[in-house]
Task: structure prediction
Amino acid sequence: MTRISVIGTGYVGLVSAAGFAALGHDVIGYDIDEQKIATLESGGCPIYEPGLEELLAEGRASGRLRFTADLGAAVAASDVVFVCVGTPQADDGTADLTQVEAVARDIAAHMTEGTVVVEKSTVPVKTAQWIRRTIELCGGRGFSVASNPEFLREGSAVQDFLEPERIVLGVADEQAREALLDIYAGIDCPKVVVDIETAEIIKHASNSFLAMKISYINMIADLCEAVGADVRQVAEGMGLDSRIGPKFLAAGIGYGGSCFPKDVRAFMRIAEQHDVNVGLLDETDRINEARVARLVARMRNDLWNLKGKKIALWGLAFKPGTDDVREAPSLRLARQLHAEGAILTGWDPVARETFLRAVGELPVEICDSPQDAAAGADAVIVVTDWPELREVDLASVAGRMRSPYLFDGRNWLDPEACASAGFWYRATGRPGVETVPGQAS
Result:
C-alpha cells in the first residue's frame, strides 16, 4: 500500500483518487474549493461520470479514501503526490501553468524527504523541469519528479482508469520508477516506462493525432456532400485497414470538450516555440472550428433565413455520457444561431445546468424532453449522439413541429426512418432524404 495524495479533484483528480483507493492504496484528495470538499466528505459527487459515485462510496467505506481542504496535511501524509490541477488555455493558446507552479511551491513547504511528485495534468514538455526547479527554489530536497499522463475519456473514465490500454510512466530515477510501478501493480496492461520529456509528449501527441483524425474525416465529409458520396461508407472502407482503424472516423459537427481543442492548440504553441512547423495541426484546428459555421450555412440555405425561426438543439454536452460542455459544439451553435436571430430551445439528459451556466445571458429554453424542445420548431439539430434519441417517436415529433427539418450533426438517426416520419432529413457527409416537409411517406 502506498500513501497517496491527489492535488485537485476535477475529472482527472477525482477519478484518479477513487481509482487509487480501489487498487488498495491510502488516498487523500485535496482541493482548494472547500464547498467541493464538503460535498465529497458528505458522500456526494460534484461531477457526473458513470460509475464514479459508486467507486467513491466504496473508497470511503473502506477507509482508504478521504478528502481535505488542507494541502499541507495531505502532502505531509503522502509518499507520492499526484498533481491534477487545471491547465486552462491562455489567450495565445498556450497552457496556463499558474496552478501547477502554485502547487509546486506548496508541496515544497510540506513534503518529507523521499516524496515522489507526479505531474498527471496535461502539461507542455519540460514542465517537470520547472516543477523540480520550483520545489528546489522553495527549499525542497531529496525528492523525485515524474510524469504519468492521464488518458481518461469523459463518460468512460472509471473504466479507462481501472482497465487502461496502457500506462505511461516518465521517470528520471529508480525511486520514482519503483514507486509508480508499485502503485499500478494491480493493473494488467502494458506499462511504458520512458524519460519524462517523452512521457509529456506522448499525451499531447496522442490527443492531437485523434483530433487530426476527426478533422480529416470531416474534410472528407465535405467532399462527399459535394459529389454525392456517403462518408459513413467511406469511413467503413478506410477503417477496415488495420493501419487506420475505425475509431474517430465519425463525421459530424466537430470535437469539443476539455482536452482536444486545448491540447491541439497547446501542442502547436510548444512546437512553434521549438521552431517546428505544425501546419498540419493548424489545419486540424481550422477544420474543426469551421464545422458549426458550415452547418449554420446549410440551415440558412434550407430555411431561407433564420431570423425568428425556432430551432431545437437535441443534446448539449460535448459527447454522450457526460455533463461537460466545455468547448461543446452546442455552445458555438447557440451563439451563432442567436446572432442570426433564431429562437432556441434545448434538451440534454444530464448537461442542462452546465449548459445554462456556460451560455450565461443567452436566451435558451431548456426542455424536459426532446419532444418538448421540438414542439413548434422550424428545425431540430442532433448535436450530441445520446442513445435516448434513437427511442424518440419521430412521427410524433414531426407532427408537432411548424416545419419538420432535421439536421443530423452526428449521423445518428436512420435517414429512412426520419423520412418516413415526415422529416426533411439532412445528414453530414452523405445524401439527405428530401421529402416534402409535413408529408410522411
